[in-house]
TrEMBL record, chains A, B:
GO cellular component, one term: cytosol
Any one GO molecular-function label of the UniProt entry: sequence-specific DNA binding
Name the UniProt record assigns to this protein: Lrp/AsnC family transcriptional regulator
Residue stretches making up the HTH asnC-type domain: 1-62
UniProt GO BP: response to amino acid
Gene3D superfamilies on file: 3.30.70.920, Winged helix-like DNA-binding domain superfamily/Winged helix DNA-binding domain (1.10.10.10)
Length: 140, 140
DNA sequence: TTTGAAAATTGGCCTAA
DNA sequence: TTAGGCCAATTTTCAAA
């Protein structure tokens, strides 16, 4: 990890499809150098992958909620792992603060969110409290 | 937006660098069809962009915090916009729930997080309360 | 670092539904 | 009018020298 690696990452964080050639042009180096650095960073897990960013509302997911889950301490990890298995649950973090588990959940509308939270996820053993915060807008 | 578009999106959400050719092979269709659909979805803003996913800890950002901000109602939007300007603030959402503004903030260590939150961001006019939750692990 | 072949991208033009 | 087939030119990728 040097200066050059860092610059490559900055570029790829903004545009994950930028070609090796273009990156090389920006850094004033060779395509080979850039490619080998990226390959290495992928292998080392520095670059975990590449994702297309989708606008959920434009494909019918009009309700996205940051949702905290509180659990009994002993069920904490099993609940977190279980949450990962659901397609609707796009992100799962364990964290300090108000809630031990934080998630991002996509739903088509409020009714569907309610079903996901309270019918599907609410049945997971060990959950004591569900705290949804509906996202109004993603500014960044 | 039909079935085929949806399948393309699912693939690109998992691997944003997959080539048109490969996607076409998976869907058993032509490269042209895939390419034109992706172009259209990019133009319509369904696909907002492509991003490399970086492991923050592996590049020295050992402390990532989901941080809620409370503001006076009249300063709400200006604070949210201001937060977007900081390099350390990777994501900004406005939301219902406990906090009107939620963010994801990267720092090298606890000391740096403290400086970012209370020296830099804390000075933004209108902020009433800062509620950081340090991420222990991103499971999904 | 350079070189060259294979693969992917891109644009234009065309047809069919 | 739109989705997609076809072809040709260019660019990118990737491995070997």
């Amino acid at each position: 990890m040097d200066e050059k690696d860092m610059k490559i990452l900055e570029i790829l964080m903004k545009d994950g499809r930028k070609s090796y050639t273009e990156i090389a042009k920006i850094l004033e180096t060779s395509e080979t150098s850039v490619r080998k650095r990226i390959k290495r960073m992928e292998e080392e897990g520095i670059i975990k992958g590449y994702k297309a960013e989708i606008d959920p509302a434009k494909i019918g997911y009009n309700v996205v909620a940051l949702t905290g889950f509180d659990t009994n301490p002993e069920d904490f990890l099993s609940v977190a792992r279980k949450l990962c298995e659901f397609e609707e649950v796009k992100k799962v973090w364990t964290s300090t603060g108000d809630h031990m588990i934080m998630t991002e959940i996509w739903a088509r509308d409020g009714k569907e969110l309610s079903e996901i939270l309270f019918d599907k996820l609410g049945k997971i053993k060990g959950i004591k409290k569900i705290c949804p915060a509906i996202i109004l807008e993603q500014l960044k």
